[in-house]
Specification:
Blueprint: H1 18-30, E1 35-38, E2 41-42, H2 51-68, E3 73-76, E4 79-81, H3 84-92, E5 103-107, H4 117-126, E6 130-134, H5 147-154, E7 158-162, H6 172-183, E8 189-191, H7 197-205, H8 209-226
Parallel strand pairs: 1-3, 2-4, 4-5, 5-6, 6-7, 7-8
Length: 228
């Protein structure tokens, strides 16, 4: 199962057409995926997506997949940027789109850290969700203090690493941190974070398949939870 991608057309910086979405899903089938949760961005300054928008787009994609007869299950959650709007939704109890097991995929700012990252993730847990931090290896402000990753994991946050980070796509620093996180067993899930076809081409060419095979069983646990 892949738990992180951007395959609903024209609602974020991922695919822009149904044809593009279908081509990427076809490629994911070729890569061996049988289940996926696509996760559009919800960033209130950029992408004001709602459950209604995302689920409507999901039905469009599902219809195209059915018509093509592709052997893959397609579902949707969301990738929530931790901003004021996200915190307000948590406080008011608005509907959240989750991964199996009531998991909430969240992302942090790239340039500067939140002042209260640990407290925010704990609040997510208090609200009954299991936080999954998207691509922690890409937050370069953590690279000088790798103990922060252990603090997050010890605090109950699951960490999802991008397979693309193991290809050098985001640069050598991110690649090095990604491998350190894997070697120190701090990663719970791998995800493609595929936005466009070249991302999947890079994953296919990656020589890091040892990590993929080691972690695939953990992603597959979510398939069992999803059908429980």
């Amino acid at each position: 199962m892949d738990i992180h991608s951007h395959l609903i057309p024209d609602i974020d910086d991922g695919v822009q057409t149904v044809e593009e979405s279908l081509a990427m899903i076809r490629k994911m089938v070729d890569l061996g995926y049988t289940h996926l949760y696509t996760t559009p961005h919800i960033i209130w300054d950029c992408y004001r997506n709602t459950p209604e928008i995302i689920l409507s787009g999901l039905e469009t994609v599902r219809a195209a997949v059915r018509e093509e007869g592709l052997p893959i299950s397609v579902n949707a959650a969301a990738e929530y940027f931790i901003d004021e709007h996200f915190m307000e939704m948590l406080h008011t109890g608005e509907q959240m789109l989750t991964l199996p097991g009531n998991r909430l995929l969240v992302e942090l700012p790239y340039s500067t850290p939140l002042m209260n990252t640990s407290e925010t993730l704990f609040f997510i847990i208090e609200k009954g969700y299991q936080p999954v931090l998207a691509h922690p290896e890409r937050y370069t402000y953590f690279h000088n203090d790798l103990t922060m990753y252990k603090k997050l994991a010890d605090g109950g946050c699951e960490l999802q690493l991008n397979i693309l980070s193991l290809t050098g796509h985001y640069g050598p620093g991110v690649n090095k941190t990604a491998e350190w996180l894997l070697e120190n067993r701090l990663i719970t899930f791998l995800g493609t974070d595929a936005h466009k076809m070249p991302h999947l081409d890079l994953i296919q060419k990656s020589n890091k398949n040892g990590w993929l095979s080691r972690y695939s069983f953990q992603n597959e646990k979510l398939v069992e939870i999803a059908h429980y």
